[in-house]
Amino acid sequence: MLGVYAYWGPKAGCAILQLESSTADISFGAVTVLTGIAGTMGGGLLLDIMGSTLPTTLGLCSMAVVVGGTIIALTFAFVRSVGLFFALFAVGELALFCIQVCLGGGVFWGVFDWEGVWLEGVLGGVLGGVGDVCVHECNVFC
Question: What are the φ/ψ torsions at residue 3 (nearest 5 degrees)?
Answer without folding.
Answer: -65, -35
